């Protein structure tokens, strides 16, 4: 799974996400599916999370998933085990401040339950083809006409 989020005038502007799912079937054939949507008023981090959530929620049976993202916010939350500490501390940071976007973190955790998931960070805007495509999906969605409301923000 490749993901990216974008927001214009972060944190108070329109934003979007882009997600690409790759699946290689037992015969060795690659299958690809893309997802994107734009929101009227959101943040980049919310869109980074939505990109992963939408991909996870699209999976119909338990899978081994590698999420490849240019978002340290997302990848470090899992690879540095911040998410475990946040949950243990009732969604508070080590500085005792509320964790941002708990609605999306909880939605993501629920979507991940049946899967084995790893997170890999890639540098953004560095020529990685799928990351560049996700960026195009996300920014095109943010610039689109049919923007959704980010209701939990």
Helical segment count: 5
CATH architecture: 2-Layer Sandwich
Question: What is the mean predicted local confidence, pLDDT?
Answer: 95
Q: Helix content range of the residues, please?
A: 25-40%
Describe the overall structure:
The chain is α/β, with parallel strands linked by helices and 153 residues long. The protein has a single domain, classed as Ribonuclease H-like superfamily/Ribonuclease H (Nucleotidyltransferase, domain 5, 2-Layer Sandwich). 36% of the residues lie in helices and 28% in strands. The chain is built from five helices and five strands, in the order E-E-E-H-E-H-H-H-E-H. The protein has a five-stranded mixed β-sheet. Strand 1 (2-7) and strand 2 (13-24) form a beta hairpin. Helix 1 runs parallel beside helix 4. The longest helix is centred in the middle third of the chain and has 15 residues, at 44-58. It is globular and about 50 Å long. It starts with a strand and ends in an 11-residue tail after the last helix. The model has no long low-confidence stretch (mean pLDDT 95).
List keywords for this structure.
five-stranded mixed β-sheet, 36% helix, single chain, 5 helices, Nucleotidyltransferase, domain 5, alpha/beta, 153 residues
Describe the structure concisely for a colleague.
Helix content is 36%, strand content 28%.
Secondary structure blueprint with pairings:
Elements: E1 2-7, E2 13-24, E3 30-42, H1 44-58, E4 64-69, H2 72-79, H3 82-88, H4 102-112, E5 116-121, H5 129-142
Parallel strand pairs: 1-4, 4-5
Antiparallel strand pairs: 1-2, 2-3
Helix pairs in contact: 1-4
């Amino acid at each position: 799974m490749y993901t990216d989020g974008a927001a214009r005038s972060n944190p108070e502007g329109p934003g979007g996400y882009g997600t690409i799912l790759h699946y290689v079937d037992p015969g060795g054939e690659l299958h690809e599916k893309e997802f994107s949507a734009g929101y009227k008023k959101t943040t980049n981090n919310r869109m980074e999370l939505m990109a992963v959530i939408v991909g996870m929620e699209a999976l119909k049976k338990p899978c081994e998933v590698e999420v490849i993202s240019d978002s340290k916010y997302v990848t470090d939350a899992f690879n540095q085990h911040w998410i475990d500490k946040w949950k243990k501390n009732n969604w508070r940071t080590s500085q005792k401040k509320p964790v941002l976007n708990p609605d999306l973190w909880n939605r993501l955790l629920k979507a991940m339950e049946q899967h084995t998931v790893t997170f890999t960070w890639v540098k953004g805007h560095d020529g990685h083809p799928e990351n560049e495509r996700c960026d195009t999906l996300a920014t095109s969605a943010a610039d689109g006409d049919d923007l959704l409301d980010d209701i939990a923000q």
